[in-house]
Amino acid sequence: MNNCRSYQVESQFMISFKGAQYPKDVILFAVFFYVRYGVSYRDLEEIMAERGVSVDHTTLNRWVTRYSCAIADIARRRKGPCDRSWRMDETYVKVKGSWVYLYRAVDKHGKTLDFMLSQRRNKPAATKFFARMLEINGLPRKIVIDKSGANTAGIKDVNKMLKGFGCPLPIEMVRQKYLNNIVEQDHRFIKRRTRPMLGFKSFESASATLSGIEVVHMIRKGQFTPGLCPFLQFAELAA
Predict the structure, then answer these.
(1) Pfam families this protein is in (predicted)?
(2) What is the CATH number of domain 85-186?
(3) In degrees rounded to 5, what are phi and psi of residue 86?
């Protein structure tokens, strides 16, 4: 499949492909191609057929939903170290005709820290996202946000929890919109990939697909093995 066609997964997968009727690398290539290029499932069905793989578009949908989240969970933990100055913001995605919220954060150099799809944009959602980021990335020096009251309350909640655990210094909160330009610009890649999809039919499908899109975006930003074929980097995350 282009330069990556001869690649065979040799190491033991952490993600189970037990019961799959297709080779692991075929499944991974299909998932990678969908989240990287934003094609429709029917387009991907034709692309796979041109490469000698006959697979129904509904099966492709199941693969993306099943494997993207699992690979993203691994990617969040395997990515390289990030700066302790963070930028956090949320963008909008349509699911079943309604808007939901994609929480995203990058460091001051634009490296992805974390992401989370939420049905609501409120204090509990913001607190959950901040706690999730801390679990994976450690303590930041500061977090830059916009003037959202929910995000402000979320950071205050996290600081209360940290104080309860004996953390001597709170996380500095900076509420200056222009400093958040880097994460707002980073949203563009995600939007560019989701726009041709014309919305999602379920929250589960949206969360899985967006997780896969975030992973290939991290690969583009060199957060894993720069210089290696992007598909191979994606496949390595499942190994």
Answers:
(1) DDE_Tnp_IS240 (PF13610)
(2) 3.30.420.10
(3) -110, 155
